[in-house]
Amino acid sequence: MRADPLADDTIARILAGADLPEMARRIGAVNRELAGWDSNGVLVDWCASSACDPEIAAALEAYVRDARTLPAWAEAAAIARAEASFMDTSMLSCTLLFCASLPECYVLPDLSAVLHVAGGLEQHTDYRIRSTAAMIFPVLLRGGLEAPAGGGVAQAIKVRLIHATIRHLILRGAPPAATQAIRPLPPQAPAGPGMYAALYARGWDTGRDGLPCNQEQLAYTLLTFGYVFLRGLRSLGLTLPQADEQACLHAWNVLGHVLGIEQASMASTMSEAAVLFDGLQARGRRVDMAHDPRPQLAAALMQEMAREIPLRPLKSFPVLLTRHLCGPAVSSDLGLTQRVALPVRALFAFGLGATRLFDALVRLAVPGFSITRMVTRAFGYRLVTRFLMDQTRPLKLPDALLGQVAAVTAGWKHDPQAPRWVNRFEARLAGRPAPQKGQA
Hints:
Blueprint: H1 5-15, H2 20-34, H3 54-67, H4 76-89, H5 91-105, H6 109-119, H7 125-140, H8 152-171, H9 195-201, H10 206-209, H11 215-225, H12 227-235, H13 242-258, H14 270-284, H15 294-307, H16 317-326, H17 328-333, H18 342-362, H19 371-388, H20 399-411, H21 420-430
């Protein structure tokens, strides 16, 4: 029953007394102002444009003053360490995003229902992927949370306002106070096409489901990108040092603060995160829904990945990898229990086991060597180039920030930890030019 008072009050001030067409007009005005938030430095002493309605301008300026600051407990050294880990895992991060973090996001039924209505995600899966990347990259690039030229804080406080706008539309007004009588909002016929009308007409039972995009859902989603990512590395035999794991969790917690998540809903160690994540997931699963969108969302995600695998016998590998990383309970929730041909399953299981054994043996002579890392990086490269860095539909980021992302991902083509022959073989798997003499 708790959401985000700062963002909710801001949106309530902006949308108060408006019908749906007027809400759409005001949200459009807000989006035009948000387009100017292209770096953390811009937020210092930010003022709305002269064309902005005075009421909207005053609400946004007050919001920026309060939302842009990092928590007092943020540690610069831990954030820098997390940024270095992200740069090191590079393309592998994208594989885990697709096969672990996003699938785990879909597990909570009411959260999936909001994602479904907000994006029509079965038909526009890449929208969710690209929107997620548009926040993750600015946060985890060097200086993303602290440097004036970084864009992590600017992107995060935009997302925070989006969450509040979704809540306002679904609830057809500001979230109710805890002392108010709560009545279910019945669904109604949409007043027109588009996402705003769909959210407004959806209906919501606050007494049963709590507030949409509430604190528990936000905390759970934050864990899918921090804890689930680190858990995925462990599952692949690529565990980071404990100090690096804790630094990554710390950086995500700092982001969580900027997103309006309460510190009590955060974890600072992997063991704490496991307990918190499992508890939130167990509670979230209890929601009963007439229509369960989760299998459709998961199927659409798997299909998008399968399209990028050139060999037909390997197109089931995303499903098998997701099963491995997320476990049988999540696979069942998401409908990823469909039969996969025995030879494909055997090839996947043999490949996973053989590479783990081969890695362990070769590391005795070549520290840091990993076939698993090579294969998952190759798959991640295909996903990055097809989904995130496609020049025909660039990420929705400011030009300077988009240039930073492009430069960083270009540098990820070759693994600095691996010998040149490994990079050449990885390049063949990924379908890109092999490194030349003198390159890593």
